[in-house]
Each structure stands twice: as C-alpha cells, then as structure tokens.
Amino acid sequence: MKRVVILVGLVLAATVACARQSASDSSTGTASAGLSPIYSPGKCHFRLKLNGGTVSVHNASSFQSAGYYPPGTENWSVPLLCYAGASQDQIDQQLDAKKINGTWVWYNPGAGNVPENPPFTPEQHFHAYALSGSNWKGTAITYDDTTGDEATRGRNLFFCLVETGGSQVLCGGPIPVRALVDPPSTSTLPKIMAVLKTIEFVDASVGSPTPASAAAAH
C-alpha cells in the first residue's frame, strides 16, 4: 500500500512539474525567440532582435521615434520614425523617391529650380529593395550623393516598413551606409537590413504580434 501511495505521489509531482514547465515556456516565448520587449514610439508598437544592441524611444509631442544602436563602437544606427496611418504619398516622401509608370524617380513636388520628380542619374547608382518581415512589407532605396564636398559624399539609405493589413508604419533616412572617399568605406547596409528584417509589429493591447489575418480583421 505504501508503494502505491509513493508511486501516485511521484506521478503527481511529475505532472505538476510538467505543468509548471509548460507555463514557464509559454510566458517566456518572446525571450526564447530572441525578441526584445515591445517599444512604442507614438502609435507604432514593435519588437525586434537586439543582438546585443539597444533601442531608445522618443515621444515628443510633435515627434515620435525610436533608434536602434548596435553593440560596441560600430559607427552606425537605425532611426525608426513612426508614421502610423501614413498615405502612399507620405510614404513616398519619407523614401525620397516614388514609382511612376514603373520607373523610380526622385520625390519632389516641384520647388525652386528643381523640376517635379526628376529622374535619378546613372552617377547616383540608385537601387530599390523589396523588403518583408513577419507581418509587414517594405521598400528601401539607396543612392549616392553627387553634389557637395567630395570628401563627405556618401551612399544614403531610406526605408519604410508598412504593417500588413494595419496602420503602423516605420520609416528611416537618410542613413549614410557608405562613404564614397577613395577608397570607399565598407558598406553597413547588410547589417542594417539584417536588423530591419527582425522587426515585428505588435498589437500593444494584448502584447502579441499582428499577423496579416489578425491585422485585416481590425
């Protein structure tokens, strides 16, 4: 009889231990996935893989943004400005470029001596990138400075990430990713792109990601 009681006790203890472990795994799912806490600049809520870096958030009355700073002394960072509810024209403005009839042109509504939406020149080495994350689609562009002091000219990155089926938008730029001195510096673009691809928009009210299906339901 004592052996039966001991066996039952051992089974119950194992069951409780498994239940506790399951609850622990559930509550730390974000940590085990390597994602950061939720950051909330303005009406944007997101998390990402920090990989040893840090994020700062600024919520001034007229300016809501965050910034990703890599670990150590690497000389680059990623501004993340919230433009929740931005129209396509506003997104084009943040990208500093827009697509007209399948061709990318410089975003300019026409001001001063600059014509409306001038084309990029071959010397600018314009390039557009289609980006995607867990619950967003995005666009990034790069082009080279062709005016100003040659010693300080560089290649610049602009990007916007748009929540799938939702209103959250994060943009950044201009971000210098390569100096054009002779010889040119090593580009930081691959590292910045790697950070952007880990971003996940979050429904702040429940603290969980907003997949395409859930975002569309809103």
Automatic annotation (TrEMBL):
Keyword Signal: yes
Phylogenetic lineage: Bacteria, Pseudomonadati, Pseudomonadota, Gammaproteobacteria, Lysobacterales
PROSITE patterns for this protein: PROKAR_LIPOPROTEIN (PS51257)
Taxonomy, superkingdom: Bacteria
Organism: Rhodanobacter glycinis
Protein name (Swiss-Prot/TrEMBL): DUF3558 domain-containing protein
Keywords in alphabetical order: Signal
Signal peptide residue numbers: 1-19
